[in-house]
Amino acid sequence: MKIYTKTGDKGQTALIGGRRVSKADLRIDAYGTVDELNAWIGLVRDQAVNALRKDLLKEIQDRLFTIGAELATDPEKAPKQAMPAIVPNDVTLLEEAMDAMDAELPELRAFVLPGGHEAVSFCHLARTVCRRAERLTIALNDSSPVDPLVIQYLNRLSDYLFVLSRKMAQELGAEEVAWKPRK
C-alpha cells in the first residue's frame, strides 16, 4: 500500500464519510492538533522518569486517536461502522491519576514557570498543545456540535499534564521555579 494518494495535492482532504473539505478547515485544524498532542504524549511517555506511567500514557494516546476519529467524522453523514467514543470513565481515570500524584506533591502556592528538566519541558509542551486542541475543539463546537465528553476530556488532560509535569520535576529532583511577577 502506498502512503501517498495525491488526493490532497490541491489542499483538500476527506472526512470520515467521504466529504472533501479544505485542509485549512477548523475541523482539520482541531484533529490535526489532537494528532500533534498525541506525538508529544509519545515523547513524554518515552522519558525514563515515566517508566511506571507508560501504560496510562499509552491509554491516553489511544483516547486521543478516538477523539481524532470523532473530529474527523463528517457530522452530516453517519459512519458506515461503529466508532469508538470517549466515556465518563476516561475522565475519571485522569482525575484519579491526578489525585494520586497530587497527594505526593507540595502544595502549589504560585504559578510555575515551565522547565527545570528537559523531560518536564516536554510535558509542559504537551500541556500547551492540549490547551490549543481544547480551544480549537470548542471553536468547532460553536458551529458543529462535538461530544461534550471530548471537550471535558481535553480539559482534564491538560490538568493531568500539569500535575504530571510537577510530579516528574519532583521525581527528577528538578527545581520548580515559581513565577514572581515584577512589581
Task: Summarize the model shown.
The protein has 183 residues and is mainly alpha-helical. It has five helices and two strands; from the N terminus they run E-E-H-H-H-H-H.
Which structural traits does this protein have?
two-stranded antiparallel sheet, 3% strand, mainly alpha, 183 residues
Secondary-structure topology with pairs:
Layout: E1 12-14, E2 20-22, H1 26-45, H2 54-71, H3 88-102, H4 118-143, H5 148-172
Helix pairs in contact: 1-2, 1-4, 3-5, 4-5
Proportion of helical residues: 55-70%
In N-to-C order, the SSE pattern is: EEHHHHH
- What gyration radius follows from the Cα positions, in whole Å? 18 Å
Count the E strands. Answer: 2
What's the number of helices?
Answer: 5
For the largest beta-sheet, the strand count, sense and barrel status come to: 2 strands, antiparallel
Strand proportion: under 5%
Task: Walk across the major sheet and give the strand order.
Answer: 1-2
Which stretches are low in confidence, meaning pLDDT under 50 for 5 or more residues running? none
Overall 3D form: elongated
Distance N terminus to C terminus?
61 Å
Category by helix and strand content: mainly alpha
Q: Give average pLDDT, whole number.
A: 93
Could you describe the 3D structure shown?
The protein has 183 residues and is mostly helical. 57% of the residues lie in helices and 3% in strands. The chain has helices spanning 26-45, 54-71, 88-102, 118-143, 148-172, and strands at residues 12-14, 20-22. Strands 1-2 form a two-stranded antiparallel ribbon. Helix 1 (26-45) packs antiparallel against helix 2 (54-71), helix 1 (26-45) runs antiparallel to helix 4 (118-143) and helix 3 (88-102) packs parallel to helix 5. The longest helix has 26 residues, at 118-143. It is elongated, with a radius of gyration of 18 Å.
